[in-house]
Amino acid sequence: MQNLATPLCRRLGIAHPIVQAPMGGSVGPALAAAVAQAGGLGMLALSWSDLASARDQIRETRRRTSRPFGVNLVLDSPQDDRLAIVLDEGVRIVSLFWGDPGPYIARVHERGGIVLHTVGSADEARRSVSLGVDAIVAQGWEAGGHVWGEVATFALVPAVADAVAPVPVIAAGGIADGRGLAAVLALGAQAAWIGTRFLCAEESEAHPRYRELILAAAESSTVHTKLFDVGWPDAAHRVIRNATHDAWEAAGRPASGARPGEGETVARAADGEAIPRYSADAPKAGMTGDLDAMCLYAGQGVGLVRDIRPAAAIVAAIVAEAESVLRRLGAP
Ligand SMILES: Cc1cc2nc3c(=O)[nH]c(=O)nc-3n(C[C@H](O)[C@H](O)[C@H](O)COP(=O)(O)O)c2cc1C
Questions:
Q1: For residue 110, what are the contacts with CB-CB under 8 A and spacing of at least 6?
Q2: 20 CB less than 6 Å from ligand 1?
Q3: Does ligand 1 lie within 6 Å of residue 72's CB atom?
Q4: Which one of 6, 26, 47, 71 is most buried, counting C-beta atoms within 10 A?
Q5: Residue 206 Cα: closest atom of ligand 1
Q6: Is the pLDDT of residue 46 over 80?
Q7: DSSP-based three-state secondary structure for 27
């Protein structure tokens, strides 16, 4: 057995260079804690949680694991109140996305914490480091969910690693197995940030039907679009192509407000709240309705997701496969 641990693993207090990507609505304490228990970094995604729920999710995660985990906040709206709770609750790994990390960094550092920031280019990585960011997440446009840049992981990761060395880089986008982990380590990353694969962890909050659609999807099944914009306008994301997308395309790709079925309810949340067509919400456990027509975030690595397994088994399989690939390639 090789040990894949990198200097970043030691800094984060984890055994394996695997981060379960934050996925708003699809991740909760069960998944984050299971990944942490398995030696990876679990991440809660609290950007849209009310303050009480944010606190509860952190406490519940801590109840399930004594290992480190992180919290992600999306910066398209102010996150001062949520960050205060995250820090008060003792979380010391904070990931930021989709905005200027500058105003938040000193507050995390004052409490002895580490700031990760997700970028889509080497220039942006350099700027983030000059502001004080401790580790860069380089997100290639293969990624599922909201996608910040337009450069593919394979070209982005080495460019970012060169731009910010010795600051550690975590690679995101299209990584779903041990071959992907070995590849991004070769490209200069110190860990892989894995989203879509963990939607099919037993502990994820993704609706069972959403998981079925992921299992059925191929690497060519996704589109990069701004279509699902209700709740998060004008923001590019990658989703599995579905009937909502095809009807919009067949209608000549009309602008928001003039699209087929605009405003109609396609599904309902567990509490009965209506989910309109083109909503940015993905199908979550407990939802009912035409889930296939909803926003089905997934990266191009979706074609590599072939089973639903406990998060610990996913982490172990990725580590074992990466080790075997590196051994085969003759790494010392
Ligand atoms: C369902 C879903 C929800 C996501 N939500 C968030 C989020 O709340 N915050 C964030 O920083 N990134 C979010 N992302 C992006 C992931 O953190 C990550 O960059 C991406 O999943 C990596 O690509 P992969 O899916 O190919 O592994 C989301 C991705 C998915 C698939």
A1: none
A2: no
A3: yes
A4: 71
A5: 1
A6: yes
A7: coil
Task: Encode burial over 152-184: b for 16+ CB neighbours within 10 A, e otherwise.
Answer: ebeebbbbbbebbeebbbbbbbbbbbbebbbbb
Give the ligand 1 atom nearest the CA of 95: 11
User: Which amino acid type is present at position 280?
Assistant: A
CA distance 267 to 274: 6
- The two beta strands, 265-268 and 274-276, are antiparallel
Q: What is the pLDDT of residues 63-84, one digit of tens each?
A: 999 999 999 999 999 999 999 9
Q: Which atom of ligand 1 is nearest to the CA of 176?
A: 27
Tokens at 46, concatenated: 């609290």
Interatomic CA distance for residues 274 and 277, integer angstroms: 10
Joined tokens for residue 298: 């997934």
Burial of residue 235 (CB within 10 Å: 0-12, 13-18, 19+) is: middle
Q: Return the number of other C-beta atoms located less than 10 Å from residue 89's C-beta.
A: 16
Q: Is 142 in the pocket of ligand 1 (CB under 6 A)?
A: yes
Cα 126 to middle of ligand 1, angstroms: 22
Of 118, 38, 32, residue with least CA distance to 75: 118
Order the strands of the 222-225 sheet from edge to edge.
145-146, 237-240, 222-225
Tell me the pLDDT tens digit for each residue of 182-219: 999 999 999 999 999 999 999 999 999 999 999 999 99
> Model confidence over 109-163: pLDDT tens digits?
999 999 999 999 999 999 999 999 999 999 999 999 999 999 999 999 999 999 9
Q: In sequence order, what are the beta bridge partners of 225?
A: 237
Q: What tens digit of pLDDT does each residue of 232-266 get?
A: 999 999 999 999 999 999 999 999 999 999 999 99
**Closest-CA residue to 104 (of 73, 125, 150):** 73
CA distances from 10 to 42, 90, 266 (A): 15, 19, 46
